[in-house]
Amino acid sequence: MRNPDKYIRGYLYNLLNNITVDGVTVKCYDSHSPNNDSKALIVLSTQSGRETQSNKCGKDLESNIIVDIITRYPLNTGSRLLADNIKERVLELTQNPLIENFIVQGVTIEFPSDLTQDSSTETIFRKLIKFNFKLS
Q1: What is the pTM of this model?
Q2: Do 32 and 105 touch, CB atoms closer than 8 A?
Q3: Which of 25, 48, 62, 79 is deepest in the core (most CB within 10 A)?
Q4: Is it the case that residue 17 has pLDDT exceeding 90?
Q5: Are 12 and 65 in contact (CB under 8 A)?
Q6: How far from 50 is each of 10, 24, 81, 93, 116, CA to CA, in Å?
Q7: pLDDT at 31
Q8: What mean pLDDT is predicted for residues 3-26?
């Protein structure tokens, strides 16, 4: 059985890398990003999955990935608005997923709590989207 992880990351990366939101080009990275690379970025974060029994003849896969939307502002400036708009654009672009080598039977989406980090030099706002793909 094929492992869907690289195909899911490839699909999301190709779809989300260098999108433009509110005049800002948003880069996409796999698992981590360079420090202070840009004002806004997307990280394809944690993946997990499991095999499920769909019927007596075959098995399906449930595969999850967290898409981490990050916006950075110098000092204590900025707001979550750009992160919200990027999240909205990601959801628009991923409405009809096509994952290479798999049939997408369904997708559920979860929205874990937002994260904010303040330091003496910058404020970081993070929005998380957890995609749960059911594949065969």
Answers
A1: 0.92
A2: no
A3: 62
A4: yes
A5: yes
A6: 19, 36, 35, 25, 31
A7: 80
A8: 97
CB 90 within 8 A of CB 16: yes
More confident residue, 90 or 31: 90
46 closest CA partner among 136, 104, 132, 135: 132
Q: Within 10 Å of residue 66's Cβ, how many Cβ atoms? A: 16
Which bin fits 91, alpha (ψ -120 to 50), beta or left (φ > 0)?
alpha
**Angle in degrees, CA 120, 126, 129, rounded to 5:** 170
The alpha carbons of the chain give a radius of gyration, in whole angstroms, of: 16
Token pair for residue 47?
């993946």
Mean pLDDT of 44-48: 93
What are the φ/ψ torsions at residue 81 (nearest 5 degrees)? -60, -50
The distance from CA 121 to its chain's CA centroid, rounded to whole angstroms, is 26
